[in-house]
Design goal:
Length: 159
């Protein structure tokens, strides 16, 4: 079936864009509106090296007044707890938020890969901090489709 895998992170960092890149088609809705993904979107994907992941794309982790989005965030947290592998997506082109740092720190004892996305927009300088916390960290651009080989390697090392 594939390794149960959760894609998590705050809204708008590119979780669904990464999901679609890995799936090879437009599985999840992508917009620049935070809170677009609400329900969990699942897909079985094969990484370049042959590893099969059962991926769940999730709502962006944040506190929200929108009752439907709030249910999605609760589901996202549940999926995060249940998964064997976590892909923690961060916007590597912007400074990390407190929530980003909390997420990274919460994953230190688990099979997890930090993904510094949006590398096409440049780098904020927080990469060193992330690498100090999590052994497995890759920089990529989900929109441009670069860095998948590095992701494949990092996932295999994290498992
Ligand atoms: P999500 O809320 O984390 O699922 O983020 P989305 O995948 O919906 O993407 C949010 C916005 O960021 C969209 O406008 C995407 O096109 C954009 N985006 C996603 N990945 C990248 C990337 O690698 N580079 C750039 N420049 N934009 C990206
Ligand atoms: Mg999304």
């Amino acid at each position: 079936e594939g390794i149960p895998t959760a894609i998590v992170g705050r809204p708008n960092v590119g979780k669904s864009t990464l999901m679609n890149l890995l799936a090879g088609y437009d599985r999840s809705i992508v917009t620049d509106i935070p809170g677009t993904t609400r329900d969990i979107v699942e897909e079985t994907v094969r990484l370049p090296g042959g590893l099969v992941l059962n991926i769940a794309d999730t709502a962006g982790l944040r506190t929200t007044d929108d009752p439907v989005e709030a249910i999605g965030v609760t589901r996202a947290r549940g999926k995060l707890e249940q998964s064997s592998l976590v892909l923690a997506v961060l916007d590597g082109s912007a400074p990390l938020s407190d929530e980003d740092r909390e997420l990274v720190l919460s994953l230190r004892e688990r099979p997890a890969v930090a993904i510094l996305n949006k590398s096409d927009l440049g780098q904020s300088g927080d990469e060193d901090w992330v690498r100090q916390q999590l052994t497995h960290c890759v920089t990529l651009s989900a929109r441009e489709g670069t860095g998948l080989a590095e992701l494949d390697t990092a996932v295999r090392e994290a498992l």
